[in-house]
Write a structure and sequence with these properties.
The chain is an all-beta fold. The chain has one helix and 29 strands. The protein has a single domain, classed as 7 Propeller (Methylamine Dehydrogenase, Chain H).
């Protein structure tokens, strides 16, 4: 098996138009918990405060907007998207630079890691204590991890043009393997196919789910999301049963889901097949369903947990960055590069 610089456009008011209607050990939630008693409850979720949003501007620069936001002079590779994670005192962002390398910037400093990325792909970053961990598809087509200044080849082949997702200090990673299936792995552990066939050209999302197991305490597990080959949103992992399997939500072709952990489960964000932003899952009722907010064709939303619910970030069908949800609703009048996606996080 083969798994081995002109400025931003001038601020002006926008209105989003509504759209018409090898041998690996098993990492599925059931297998991870097979040695233990059934989980009695999901652990409490710590919600974050003000949000930070990273995006590629329409002049190719990396920008971060929010309570600790800034405009950088760092240029991004065309057609790629950044990732962002909260860090003490601010944030850390990862992106593919114009030289094709993985770059890191934020409160811990700016760095060209010298690690070549596959063209057209984007990295994913997560906080790990006072540091961070990044997952990316290397220019070899293999899944790599960058941590503590060291790069590790996990020797897992990825589908061309797709990007991995990473969550939690333990480093749960979801990716589309070169077989076309959703795989999940963990740093220092093993990898396994979930059995979910993914839509070509799309990438998965993953979030950490802390599950309390009788006699063992809290265990750090995962919930992953993907667009299946039938075009629907799929979930798999340790979230409640209703969050798993085919969710029956039709997604826009070529787009990817986002996911975050919320009290009692998870919340998914997708571009629906009608071109609108959709929320699906266990967040408060006001966060679920069709938001009737049009998204730019071919782009995907991002989501994070905030007090009282969730906050979405997406590229509107105007080409501008928008935020929507329980931390506030705002068209930011900030132009995004066509075909790219924002990333959102809370603050540490």
């Amino acid at each position: 098996m083969s798994v081995s610089s002109s400025g931003l456009r001038s601020p002006r008011k926008h209105r989003i138009k509504r759209k018409a209607a090898g041998g690996f050990c098993v990492l599925t939630a059931a297998a991870v918990l097979a040695y233990a008693a059934a989980p009695s409850a999901l652990a409490d979720v710590e919600t974050s405060g003000p949000v930070q949003i990273a995006f590629q501007t329409n002049n190719s620069d990396l920008w971060v907007t929010g309570s600790n936001g800034t405009a950088t002079s760092l240029e991004m590779m065309a057609g790629t998207s950044p990732s962002i994670a909260a860090a003490p005192g601010g944030w850390e962002a990862a992106f593919q630079g114009t030289n094709g390398d993985l770059w890191i910037t934020g409160v811990l400093g700016e760095k060209d890691t010298g690690q070549g990325m596959m063209a057209g792909t984007s990295p994913s970053i997560t906080a790990a204590g006072s540091d961070y961990v990044v997952a990316f598809q290397a220019n070899t087509g293999s899944l790599f991890v960058y941590k503590d200044g060291t790069t590790t080849d996990l020797h897992l082949g990825m589908m061309s043009g797709t990007s991995p997702a990473i969550s939690g200090p333990g480093g749960w990673i979801a990716f589309q393997a070169n077989t076309g299936y959703l795989w999940v792995t963990r740093i220092g552990c093993c990898a396994q196919s979930t059995g979910i066939a993914m839509m070509a050209g799309t990438s998965p999302a993953i979030t950490t789910v802390d599950v309390y197991v009788n006699g063992l305490g809290t265990i750090d597990l995962f919930e992953a999301a993907a667009q299946g080959t039938n075009g629907d949103l799929w979930g798999t992992g340790a979230a409640p049963a209703h969050d798993n399997g085919d969710r029956g939500i039709a997604m826009m072709s070529g787009t990817s889901p986002a996911i975050t952990t919320v009290p009692g489960g998870v919340e998914f964000a997708v571009q629906g097949s009608n071109g609108n932003l959709w929320g699906v899952g266990d967040a408060p009722a006001q966060d679920n369903g069709d938001w009737e907010l049009g998204m730019m064709s071919g782009t995907s939303p991002s989501i994070t947990t905030v007090p009282g619910g969730v906050e979405f970030a997406f590229q509107a069908n105007t080409g501008d960055l928008w935020a929507q949800g329980d931390a506030g609703d705002e068209g930011m009048n900030l132009g995004m590069m066509s075909g790219t996606n924002p990333a959102i996080t809370g603050t540490a």
